[in-house]
Amino acid sequence: MTGRLEGKVAVITGAASGIGAGTARMFVAHGAKVVVADMQAEAGMALVAELGENARFALCNVTKESDVAAAVDLAVSEFGRLDVMFNNAGIVGAVGRISEMSVEAWDNTIDILLRGVFFGVKHAARVMLPQNSGVIINTSSTAGILGGLGPHAYTAAKHGVIGLTKSVANELAPHGIRVNAISPGNTVTAMTAAVTTGDADGIAATTARIASMSPLGYAGVPDDIAAAALYLASDDARYVSGHTLVVDAGQTTAGMTPNRFNIGSSREFHEAGRITE
Predict the structure, then answer these.
(1) Considering the entire predicted model, what is its pTM?
(2) Catalytic residue among 17, 141, 234, 241
(3) Angle at 151 between CA 143 and CA 92, to 5 degrees
(4) Residue range 202-253, pLDDT digits in tens
(5) Structural domain tally of the chain?
(6) Is 154 a catalytic residue?
(7) Is 166 a catalytic residue?
(8) What domain range includes position 161?
(9) Which positions of the chain have pLDDT values less than 70?
């Protein structure tokens, strides 16, 4: 059976762990060649070793345009083209009350979550425009759909990702390039474990807590988001652009929102802000 991405080349940012790693594995399983772009060098290279000849690692800080451009260029130099750009790297970032938030923490969060997506979209378009084809996928969040589901800077950035997605989809559609976003709900990753339990390794407790808040009664996992990315990246979604695919067990559409994400200023939650999705 031919994979749904047979012969395609993808760059995935934040691909060394969590949703990004799950997506890299799924893309390769479906025939794609993948550039794993991440700041976590050890984890990223371990994933590439696992995936074999169809994967390469790019050390990438998405707040640096040169790093993002280099990851895109690596895909072209190693695999000959770029078909899919998945701008997925993220952190929790600045937490706490708006009246107490530092400008530095705010700026760092926006840089990673929104500026980094801008760089990914820009450099993907640079390569895709001459091809007259390509798919760009941006990770937003249910916090980009409703207020009260994430810290303030995170929420602002994720709303911005959806706005950027719609705007760029309008520009690039005449060139055969589709641009969409995914808004994951609560998903079991090291980042959500750190926020939920104060321990990035607290996966079991995090799974139980997310399941307890899910309208479907079970927790979302990285493969659930990877499957959404696979759909949007594939020809199955050839007529889908400018769309935000919400993957949250119906939480936002049913109005079944959890308790507000009132994160304080504890050291644990600040440390959680450094864990990529």
Answers:
(1) 0.89
(2) 141
(3) 90
(4) 778 777 887 778 888 888 898 999 999 999 999 999 999 999 999 999 988 8
(5) 1
(6) yes
(7) no
(8) 9-272
(9) 1, 190, 193-194, 197, 199, 254-277
